Amino acid sequence: MDTFVEFLLALIVVGIPCGALTVRFVMRPALKEIVQAINSAKGPLPQDIERRLAELEEDQQHMTARLDQFLDAERFRAQLETGRS
After folding, report:
1. Per-residue model confidence as pLDDT tens for the chain (85 residues)
2. In the chain, which residue ranges form alpha helices assigned H by DSSP?
3. For the whole prediction, is pTM greater than 0.85?
């Protein structure tokens, strides 16, 4: 039993810090490359994408306006039907 406790104590005191340092030195270059890849992917949008995005926003605003008109017409129709009853 004493050897087991000594083993656990040695693992906690020596093993965990050594493992943590190993993971840090192994993972650090990989994480740097991942961060650099993400940062290099970020950049100004090409002119074509900005134009297409503006067109999509205009279309979305147009669809929202049409939907509002449709909802108003539907409310009006519902009011007319309740008035007939």
Report:
1. 688 888 888 878 888 888 787 777 877 888 888 888 877 877 666 778 888 888 889 999 999 999 999 999 999 988 888 886 5
2. 2-10, 16-41, 47-84
3. no
